[in-house]
Design brief:
six-stranded mixed β-sheet, binds guanosine-5'-diphosphate, magnesium, nucleotide-binding, TGS-like_dom_sf
Length: 363
């Protein structure tokens, strides 16, 4: 599966957000630092109106959304790269995530702030600096060991050193490793370096309850910062999201309307996380079940099949494929088939977002 790690300074609202996301109280929210000690992992359904549309057309008895994993990562403080606070554990946990949701406190109020005042741009810099320092120190060590391997005749080591040196150049300038310009061929080996600052980042501005629809001056500064970095930012109120998470679907709509929101902020977070990870959705649709599945962008049909079952990938013959728009416009599978909109795709077919598949395979 793919996952997003939720990071940020203590008391910015990470656990509140995580709890709202998973609608559980697994991660305890409390008004003091270091309350989130173990990484908490939760899976959430990815909201997708297309799935409901497909299910309605096919009269599917069951609807199953695709899921995305979120990990609530223990709070980090200034000095984490030197082992302060829960520094080492934090760094190890973040290394295992595919993308980072960086929660920034943009709400004023009584809650204790570890830095003494509300300033999300400063907070972002504190976290980024710790991550960059950790990458820098790690890389300096690794370049040396790789140099020994290169001397010993290891051919891969040379290419690895070259990539590491390029990351070191930007890190020494105080910029995250994700700003290194990479060719298509270099992306995968670079990803394998598993640098903390090479992961894609979404800034999540946690604003006060009455600012969820509008944002505030703090979140506006974050938006500016994100833009300058080529990153994305979303505005939510974690407190509101945790209230929403307790409500029935009807109550939710009423509450949302009363505060000027069209949908829960969490939907924005989930969709942005999905986009950040470079994922896309395909569907399987029948009378029993309409289901959304996740695969990485660029995957070929057999890799999509493997999401359903490894046997389908192993025995893969072809993928009968209908695009979403045709399926909807032509009233479902039969209509699409009659109109010649069902394509027979082979093992090299690259999956497109919204494809509806029937896989044919040998057992
Ligand atoms: P974490 O340490 O980053 O996981 O932060 P928590 O989620 O535990 O939140 C710390 C404190 O801030 C708790 O007392 C929360 O109730 C409070 N808090 C979180 N989000 C909001 C918010 O949007 N508005 C307000 N007023 N308080 C919040």
């Amino acid at each position: 599966g793919f996952n997003c790690g939720i990071v940020g300074l203590p008391n910015v609202g990470k656990s509140t957000l995580f709890n709202a996301l998973t609608s559980t109280q697994a991660a305890e929210a409390a008004n003091y630092p270091f309350c989130t000690i173990e990484p908490n992992t939760g899976r959430v359904g990815v909201p997708d109106p297309r799935l409901d549309r497909l299910a309605a057309i096919a009269g599917s008895a069951k609807v199953v959304a695709t899921q995305l994993e979120f990990v609530d990562i223990a709070g980090l403080v200034r000095g984490a790269s030197k082992g302060e606070g829960l520094g080492n554990q934090f760094l190890a946990n973040i290394r295992e995530t595919d993308a980072v949701l960086h929660v920034l406190r943009c709400f004023e109020g009584e809650v204790t702030h570890v830095e003494g005042s509300v300033d999300p741009v400063r907070d972002a810099e504190i976290v980024d600096t710790e991550l960059m320092l950790a990458d820098l120190e790690g890389l300096e060590r690794r370049v040396q060991t790789a140099a020994k391997r290169a001397k010993g005749g290891d051919k891969d080591a040379k290419a690895e050193i070259e990539l590491m040196e390029r990351a070191l150049v930007v890190l020494r300038e105080g910029k995250p490793a994700r700003t290194v310009a990479l060719s298509a061929d270099e992306r995968e080996p670079f990803r394998r370096l598993a640098l903390l600052t090479s992961k894609p980042v979404l800034y999540v501005c946690n604003v006060a309850e009455d600012e969820a629809a509008t944002g505030n001056a703090h979140s506006a500064r974050v938006a500016e910062m994100a833009k300058a970095q080529g990153a994305e930012a979303v505005v939510i109120s974690a407190a509101i999201e945790s209230e929403l998470a307790q409500l029935s679907a009807e109550e939710k709509q009423e509450f949302l309307a009363s505060i000027g929101l069209e949908e829960p902020g969490l939907n924005k977070v989930i969709r942005a996380g999905y986009k950040l990870l470079g994922l896309l959705t395909f569907f399987t649709v029948g009378p029993k079940e309409a289901r959304a599945w996740t695969v990485r962008a660029g995957a070929a049909a057999p890799e999509a099949a493997a999401e359903i079952h490894s046997d389908i990938q192993r025995g893969f013959i072809k993928a009968e494929t209908i695009d979403y728009d045709s399926f909807v416009a032509l009233g479902g599978e039969q209509g699409a088939k009659d109109a010649g909109k069902m394509r027979q795709e082979g093992k090299d077919y690259v999956v497109r977002d919204g494809d509806i598949f029937h896989f044919r395979f040998n057992v």
